[in-house]
Structure of Arginine--tRNA ligase:
Amino acid sequence: MNIRQQLNDIFQTAMTAAGLPAECSPAVAPAKKAGFGDYQANGAMAAAKKVGTNPRELAAKIIENLGEQPMIEKVEVAGPGFINIHLSESWLAGTLAAARADERLNIRKADDPQTAVLDYSHPNLAKEMHVGHLRTTIIGDALARLLEFQGHTVIRQNHMGDWGTQFGMLLAHLADKMENQDAEVALKDLEVFYREAKVRFDEEDGFADRAREYVVKLQGGDEDCLKLWQRFIDISISHAEEIYEKLGVTLQRSDVYAESQYNDDLPVLVNDLVDRGIAVQDQGAIVAFLPEMADKEGNPSVVIIQKKGGGYLYATTDLAAIRYRANVLKADRILYVVDARQTLHLQQAFTVARKAGYIADSQTLEHCAFGTMMGDDGKPFKTRTGGTVKLAELLDEAVERATALVADKNPELSAEERSEIGRVVGIGAVKYADLSKTRTNDYVFNWDAMLAFEGNTAPYLQYAYTRVRSIFRRAGVEPSDLQGDIRLGTDAERALAIKLNQFGEVLDQVAKDTFPHVLCTYLYELASAYMGFYEACPVLKDGVSEEEKVSRLQLCDLVARTLSTGLNLLGIETLEKM
């Protein structure tokens, strides 16, 4: 159900009937002020300017051409040409009844399902995941869940770094370690392992030469070296899988499509770009010059495709990935959930891919950029000693803090209950604190703010869901047993009904624009609208008629299901009791 789209279609038809050009849009949007209808069609003013007529008169003419519309109770011209739209109470009640009867809350799947390739998380397999991987993983997973809910085919691509010169260093160190212990023990702490290897590379005589020999062996396909490399990869991926399980993200081992997968295509790609005249030899390297991305002085943007010594770069691998995703995976949309600091790099790769014809005009390349998670000092989030924060340790601390908070609020809970609630609240708080911010912005990481039970936080929404569900336990009824009409006799009931009906249009907007914070804002507004309803409209109190009670319990059920569905799409769990 997308009220906004339905109204847009109705008013578009009326504008066409009124003789307006097809490019004139109704510009339907939810009303921002009480008393000005439920929605507004704001396109009459722009259309009047285009055709040279009075906007109020044009708005009246559009209304004349609306015809009979069951979903609209009345319309009126306001101000310089706004059209206020009041939705029919009976129609609203009918949509809510339909939502209750449908496991998807009457949210229709996309009419034109697409194949979306989502590139997200991509840790470097030489190191443990750290806070720098948090935003890409959380945002990417929320988008994947939402697009799948809408009926699109989602192909997750975890573009892990598993190749390059650093692996020679790591493999040489691992080979030495395995003389005294097995690989699992040696790689138990990847950060320690990496630091040990780096120290040896920088300081130990002969080690750097051995590391370079391993690179040559690895790239040459040496069987023993490849086995060692594969062992390293398997154990490293297991570390990442532990994080994914803690975070509750949907990435699987089968979603890993690492840098090494494109090795065979890299020389082919370079030769193809040269043959097409897009890349040329320059000072021994293979370079693409992009006048489309020239600077203010007119100098073209420079993309190195192959280094002087024959080595390949991230740009080469990303171009190979674009070819694979467009031509093999047949993607309609390719979305990169990647740090905003990579904007130039991705723009260059996208431009080269377009010029080379690696991607069709109908296929989109989208950079879902995100800002940096900052500490209280306004700098990128670090440990107190200035080191990188391991993601596993951050999540453990979130659960510990949430468990202590829950124990303080509900000391009667058993240790098992506290542990489970603490896990759900702690992980949910970290994820929601990120998702609720406009992803292109930096944000300050603050434990107290994210774990608060007031305001736009996961604990608040999780608790709101629990409170709604507790009403049914007090009433001694199951939502599925409720029979009767939904009545919207008060302003609070009507406001809640409209907010519930806006769920579908919010999901459509997030799927199109890839900003999960819009869904977070909606869920917070829904919880707030519910609180207004609950205070104004008694549900179980004496004096409430049976018809009112049944109607209001149905509204409560829809709120709980919408909150649960919305939070699940964000990758956040709910609890029946807190």
